[in-house]
Design a protein that fits this description.
With 403 residues, this protein is mainly alpha-helical. Helix 4 runs parallel beside helix 16 (368-382) and helix 9 (200-216) runs antiparallel to helix 15 (346-358). It has one domain (4-385). It has helices spanning 4-17, 20-26, 53-71, 76-99, 102-129, 143-146, 156-172, 183-196, 200-216, 220-242, 252-257, 263-267, 273-280, 310-334, 346-358, 368-382; strands at 296-297, 302-303, 337-338, 341-342. The strands form two sheets. A two-stranded antiparallel ribbon has the order 1-2. Strands 3-4 form a two-stranded antiparallel sheet. The model is unreliable at 388-403 (pLDDT under 50). Helix content is 59%, strand content 2%. It is globular.
Length: 403
């Protein structure tokens, strides 16, 4: 029988990773995923909040946001609207922290792998039916943005982030992912999926992950697998491109990633990543920003500046201090302290790098699908090898020799 925390966890899990796109279409794109995190509120009545580094980091970040609001004479409504980001993300972290155990983590990760696998055929189907859908079912999305799999509408970045974190799990957790069969085939399949969708930043992160794997896990067998995998992925992408099954050439991400953009475009509300970075490094640098919610309206989803990304939003609205404090939150989740020690592993380093890069193109703390899988992988990193399913007996058990 499922406990209340597991019921809530799997409900949020399904709504985040499996049903979001369908619910978006059925609701005529009125569906919003972030409030789903509020389902975790009842758990506060049964499980205490841990006074740990993550909680302290959240408190510090909230304090900076409030100070920024007071300093910039922001309205109480604007301050509260910005603080909602902290509430949504903390509830997801809290839900993950109180629910996942050595017994439950294996089936959760197995479900994540299967969800990752089905994204490719769903995306290809979405692109093929796009031209036949009435305009009201497209929700204003261009063809290139319509393929987000089972994830929320126009959030192919969330789907790509999910896939990259699953790939990290398959590559770097050999002693914990033994229940996944044919890992090489799965990794190649997921890599193809990441490379054909529109999220440019995650393509770069994927290449970085494989570079780290190639260096950190250097072995003749891995070199052979890496070469074969690269060949298979390359031929697959050529096939998809030749048969018009994808929306853009794979080399397009190099151009778009290096695009410099125009500062005026950013200041007028347009998306220009390079221009935003140049602006913040010069005239736009502030310690406390221009005030919470100064350049965005969460109700209408309109932007007065092109802050299409967590880092740009925090830097411009709550300043350098607020942005750094938000990174401390992400860092604290990625690198928990166990037995008074911070254990650095490749999987923790890579999930932090992945979320850091994505923060420049997506609202990583306000997108529940992104933050949820991030917390799941981080929580998995806390669990010791002895707490995982015994690969010989196949039975889940906990170590009786805990220190």
């Amino acid at each position: 029988m499922l406990s209340i925390k597991k019921t809530i966890f799997y409900t949020v899990f399904l709504l985040s990773f499996c049903l979001s796109f369908l619910l978006s279409l059925l609701s005529q794109f009125a569906y919003r995923l972030a409030p789903v995190s509020l389902l975790a509120i009842p758990l506060l009545l049964f499980y205490r909040i841990k006074f740990n580094r993550v909680f302290v980091a959240y408190v510090i970040l909230a304090g900076i946001i409030i100070i920024s609001g007071i300093y910039n004479d922001s309205s109480l409504i604007n301050i509260l609207l910005f603080l909602r980001i902290l509430v949504f993300s903390f509830l997801i972290y809290y839900l993950t922290d109180v629910t996942l155990t050595p017994e439950s983590i294996a089936p959760v990760m197995k479900a994540c792998v299967w969800i990752a696998i089905v994204q490719l055929p769903i995306i290809l189907l979405q692109w093929q039916i796009y031209d036949f859908l009435p305009l009201r079912w497209r929700g204003g999305a261009l063809l290139i943005d319509f393929g987000s799999g089972t994830f929320n509408f126009k959030t192919d970045y969330a789907m790509s982030f999910f896939l990259v974190l699953v790939i990290i799990f398959l590559l770097f957790e050999n002693k914990r992912n033994y229940f996944i069969k044919n890992k090489f085939i799965v990794i190649v399949w997921l890599s193809i999926t990441v490379l054909i969708v529109n999220s440019q930043i995650m393509k770069f992160v994927l290449l970085l992950v494989f570079l780290v794997f190639f260096v950190a896990k250097f072995h003749v067998r891995n070199v052979i697998f890496f070469g074969i995998g690269t060949l298979v992925v390359g031929l697959s992408l050529m096939y998809f491109s030749t048969n018009n099954l994808v929306t853009e050439d794979i080399s397009a991400f190099l151009y778009r990633f290096n695009s410099q953009g125009n500062v005026n475009t950013y200041l007028s509300g347009g998306y220009s990543r390079g221009a935003a970075l140049r602006y913040f490094a010069s005239d736009g640098f502030t310690w406390l920003g221009d005030g919470p919610s100064a350049f965005s309206d969460p109700f209408t989803r309109t932007l007065l500046r092109g802050n299409v990304g967590h880092s740009f939003t925090f830097f411009s609205e709550v300043g350098f201090l607020g942005w750094i404090a938000s990174l401390v939150v992400l860092f604290s989740i990625s690198f928990p302290i166990r037995d008074y020690k911070m254990h650095i592993t490749w999987i923790r380093v890579l999930i932090f790098i992945a979320v850091l890069f994505l923060s420049f193109t997506a609202q990583v703390m306000n997108d529940i699908a992104v933050f949820f899988i991030f917390c799941i992988l981080a929580k998995m990193g806390e669990l010791t090898l002895a707490e995982f399913e015994n690969p010989i007996s196949g039975q889940l058990k906990m170590s009786v020799n805990r220190k």
